[in-house]
Amino acid sequence: MPDSVVLTEKLTKHYGDIVGIDGLDMEVVRGEVFGFLGPNGAGKTTTMRLLMGLLFPTSGVARVLDLDCWKDSVALKREIGYLPGEPTLYPRLNGEEHIRFVAGFNGGSAEGGMRLASRLELDTNRRARDCSRGMKQKLSLVLALMKSPPLLIMDEPTTALDPLTRRVVYDVLAERQESGATILFSSHNLSEVERICDRVGIIRDGSLVATERIDELGGKKLHNVEVTFSGPPPADFASLPGVSGVKAETGDRLVLSYRGDVNELVRYLGRFEISDLAIAHASLEDVFLEYYGSGDDASEAVGEGEGGEAS
Amino acid sequence: MRKVVKDRWPGMLLFLIGIEAYVLLSAALYPTVKNMKGLNQIIKKTPESVFKLFGMSKDFTSFNNYMVGRLLGLTWVIVVAVFVIAFARAMVAGEREEGTLELLLAQPIERWNVLTTEGLVLLAGIIGLVLATVLGTMAFGAAFGAHITFGGYFAFIPAASALFVAIAGYSIFFSAILKDARLVAMAAGGLTLVFYMLHFAGAYSSVADKIDWFGIFHYYDALKVLDSGSVPIKSVLVLLAFGAVGFSAALLAFRHKDVN
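Above: the input entities. Below: the structure tokens describing the complete assembly.
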């Protein structure tokens, strides 16, 4: 039985008539990096704020490190490093003052924070109101990571960061995972999620619609297929079992997703003259798009690789 | 606590400088006003009830009465009330609007502790402004040859502080329950105005006078305190109770308030 660090059961949050999350069942186990995927408004930030005891649920249960997220909120926050979705800093305080402020609550020294700030090349003498979005994000990261807690909850940690800083953040997160920390984080950047996560949860309309292990994506039998026929493509190809959608159709060439036994597909294609065929395992992006289709929600949520956040 | 003080002291300092400047100006004008024969004749012809509205008497040669009419009866009350409401507005609703409440509550700290710490800084601010006013009035008044009733001014410190504690109580409550910081200022300012209007109407109507018992200005009589030199214990306790009820309600509301 895995050791749960985050466990929610039927967790629901409504804002009046608006559904934040609806009956969310989620588990994050000790030592893993869990990526939380979904477009804006899907419920990622609401879930994280509920886990931090910042929001109160309409119904349901949430436990972190076997503590109740609301009754044991103060004890819990000693064990969590939290990065909010937007940098929330005091305009008049500079970086070092922020670091000392947060260190004061946790009874720790600010030295670790200052070292981390230096690693992220952050000028800690500048007041928050004079900082760029990227600098504010760096400072928020320092505040979340400075106390080496057993759980990190990070809402879009690499937003507004340059690629070099992003790599430093990945390294720091990897170090934290090696030292035993569990990490729950959300991102719009799927290549980033694929790179650093052990598992991903896909949230849609406030519910977790899928949980996938990154290393098992290849075994999901979801393939991207690109086939060029020597003549006109067969009319019934789209209705073949397992074909989940024709993404492109130009003359004799078809690009589509296929879920199922690849032998069945090859046998079917063997009935036709084809001039080219490419079959590849689907990426996380393809898995994500399967749940979200290719509509606005999906394009909003899916990044274009490094630096490709859509929001 | 240090963060709250650091964050708020520029505002407090501005109010302090403004109040001291106004006290100095008022005290400096006192010798002139005292000797204006024409003005005193007008005052004599003005009905007593008009002065009663502003908590004053007809005797403008009295420094206490002059300071109440010029400053402590209304103008100064408005200025300090604005400070209190602005501070309370920034406490919860303002921090929520700026997003900094999320940073604060992500730390291992109880919500009541956050509110109490900010409340204590506000209390210190109120006492600081009242003290500055009293000390300034005594110093500048004496410098311009006024007769200073020291006992009266020392008694004025708890009496005036209690009034602003009452205003702080409901202002903090509005800050805890309302999401929009502008609404907090409007609600707290509006209620303060209603209380004042009620007190104003109480001077004319016996019905309004009875309702005024439920307002805060019924328990604030600056001239009486300055002249008598005794602390109005009952009034101070009622005003402190007002503040305590407002603050307790704020604590309860904030305990289960969403931060988003």
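Note for the figure: The mean pLDDT of chain A is 85.
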